[in-house]
Amino acid sequence: xxxxxxxxxxxxxxxxxxxxxxxxxxxxxxxxxxxxxxxxxxxxxxxxxxxxxxxxxxxxxxxxxxxxxxxxxxxxxxxxxxxxxxxxxxxxxxxxxxxxxxxxxxxxxxxxxxxxxxxxxxxxxxxxxxxxxxxxxxxxxxxxxxxxxxxxxxxxxxxxxxxxxxxxxxxxxxxxxxxxxxxxxxxxxxxxxxxxxxxxxxxxxxxxxxxxxxxxxxxxxxxxxxxxxxxxxxxxxxxxxxxxxxxxxxxxxxxxxxxxxxxxxxxxxxxxxxxxxxxxxxxxxxxxxxxxxxxxxxxxxxxxxxxxxxxxxxxxxxxxxxxxxxxxxxxxxxxxxxxxxxxxxxxxxxxxxxxxxxxxxxxxxxxxxxxxxx
Length: 374
Ligand SMILES: *Cc1c(COP(=O)(O)O)cnc(C)c1O
What we know:
Aspartate Aminotransferase, domain 2, Aspartate Aminotransferase, domain 1, 4-stranded antiparallel sheet, globular, binds pyridoxal-5'-phosphate
């Protein structure tokens, strides 16, 4: 009996998005092997943190790297680093902060993940109006002696934000570090060094999304000075960061994932994604979808293609439900279209999704006909 049968857990193919709720992505065998290997011995966790961090930093063209339990955990550890700096007393007092306790965010970028910064006791200060970017002057004036950092979310509010380059320039001129949340910003692979090359002091990535590391892993890439503080205040230290504890297994699992991600031929991967989309779209047209199209952008602006189609009868929501009973997650949108995301699928799974689509469309047709007779 396998574990699915033993516990009665359903399996799904994820053709929607790398949502944590749906298990996001599947680890590569190389991650699992590394995890299994290190699990058999006790080790000095600090040594694992440093050595995997240094290896990931050199792979990703960064000065230093810190491994944590997720992008949210990364936000909390970075927040503690900017609040405590090098003071043991200040760190252990958190979530009670000193006067220098503010983290600035552009209002348009406001989102639920900023609570992970606030978890240390940091006070989030929003600048700008929401539907338009703050002026450079407004940002500059918001930075005071109470400011510990400026945080920047790469996708949220991107049309109403000052560009990262300008934020970095202003923050640094005022002597304040910049934390970038780039949790889901792969592909392209270059993003692993792009934001830090633009001057971000810390750039945070999820390990369990496109990188396909352990679900409970994450990465802070950045300047040595700040990564040292993450290492100092992060687990196994107790205090506000203790909830961000990472296992040695997750650390080396993520290392193996990053190494494999960097070793893959990005052009070949993109070609495979385009082929998967072409296959989706042939299936949608064959099923009579009225409008079928492709977008060259992931849900948070990443560079990969996704397929869309407007359902010809019934509803997109019903189709997504029927697909789910076939063990497949797809997206249903308000305009009665579905979305199919090939990012995390093998070519075999693409075939399974296409077959399930045909079957689900036949089922929806039957339902429609039945309703018509009532
Ligand atoms: C997914 C996501 C997170 C959380 O990532 P975890 O690795 O699941 O903790 C944080 N910020 C953004 C913008 C995300 O997309």
